[in-house]
Amino acid sequence: MALIPQQIIEQAQRWRRDFHTRPELGLQEHATAKIIAELLQSFGLEVHSGIAQTGIVATLRNGEGPTIGLRADIDALPISELNDFAHISCHPGLMHACGHDGHTAILLGAARYLSETRHFRGTVHFIFQPAEENAGGGRLMVQEGLFERFPMQAVYALHNWPGMPVGEVAVSQGPMMASQDNFYITLTGKGGHAAMPELGADPIVAGAQLILALQTLISRRLSPLEQAVISLTQLQAGEAINVIPETLQLAGTLRCLSNQTRQRCWQLLEEYVNSVPVPYGVKGEVRWELGYPVTQNHPEQAEILRSAAEHTPGIRQVHFNNAPSMAAEDFAYLLEACPGAYFWLGADGATPSASLHNPRYDFNDDLIPLGIGVWVSLVERSLKL
C-alpha cells in the first residue's frame, strides 16, 4: 500500500483543528455536518444528509463488488476547555474532549484519498454519525434505515486511545467495550423528628445498607468469570438537620460485557432494591434508563481489520484479543445490525495524552496518517481489484 500523500495529511490536520475550534453537541452538529457534506461533494462522492437529523452518508462506487461502511462520530461534549493553544474551542462550555474531531478528519482524509486513487473494486459508504455521546445517534441511524438504505456486508469504526502509544492498534474478536445503563432508586420511608426516630422509618439508614449490599452483587451473586461494574454516583436526601427525611434518592451506572450478565444484573439490582429496605419500614423502587449495548466485534471482521492494520505503514504493533474497556460506545447499535469491528488507535506520543473527556485533552494529530492508512488498507484489502 502506498503512503498517504503529505498534502492530504496536512489538509486533514487543518480540518481537525477547524472542527476543534467549533464543537457542537449531539444532534446539533449543523455547521459541522455542512462542512463535511461540502468536502465530500468536492471529492465527487454521492452525499446523503439529514440522517438522524445531522448525520451524513457519502457513497464512493468503483465497479461491481462488495460493499463496506466506515464510520466516524462528529459530536462534542459539554465541557469547558482548559487548553491554551491557537485552536481552542471558541464555543464556551463545549469542546471536542473525546477526539471526534480527529475521527472525522481521518475519515474525510480516507474519503479523499480513495476517491482519487480508486485501488479497489466495490462500494464504500462513509458514515458520519451524530450524537455518540449519550444521545444514541448510532441507534437513531439504524432505526432510520441506515442498513436498508445503504446495504453493506460489514461496517467498521475506530477510536483514539490514550494509554496506548502512537503506532499501536488494538482489536478483539468479541467485546471491545461494555454496555451502559443508568438506574435511579427512590427509597420512601416516614419522615419525622430526628430526636424520635422510632416514630418514623428512616430511608437514610436503609439507603446506607442498600449501598453496601449492592457492592456484593458483583462479588457474591455473579460468577467470578462474569465481568460487570456497578457504581453508585449520586445520593440526595434531607433538608433540615433535625428532620428524618421522607425519601432518599440514589443513582448510578451499570456496565457489563455480555447481554446475559446485563440482564442478570437488572434482575438482581431490582431484587436488592425491593428487599433490603423492608426491615427498616422503607419501600424501594428503581427506574432504569437503558443505554448502549455491548460493543461486540464479529470474529471474521475483527480478523480482517487486524490484517489491514498489520499491513499499514507506521503501525508497529497490533494487539489482538486484548482486554476490553468498561466504557461504552454507541457503535454497538451498528454492530448489532451488521457484521463489523471496532478498533483502538494508540494516542500517546512522547508526552502521554490527557485522558478522554478531560478538559485538557487534545487529539494527537500524529494519528491522522495512521488512521487514514488503516482505512485505506482495509478498503483496498477487502475490496480487491
From TrEMBL:
Cofactor list: Mn(2+)
Cofactor comment text: The Mn(2+) ion enhances activity.
Residues holding Mn(2+): C98, H100, E133, H159, H357
SUPFAM superfamilies recorded: Bacterial exopeptidase dimerisation domain, Zn-dependent exopeptidases
Keywords: Hydrolase, Manganese, Metal-binding
Domain Peptidase M20 dimerisation intervals: 183-279
InterPro entries hit by this protein: Amidohydrolase, Bact_exopeptidase_dim_dom, Peptidase_M20, Peptidase_M20_dimer
Coiled-coil region list: none
BP terms from Gene Ontology: diaminopimelate biosynthetic process
Protein name in the entry: Amidohydrolase
Taxonomic lineage of the native organism: Bacteria, Pseudomonadati, Pseudomonadota, Gammaproteobacteria, Enterobacterales
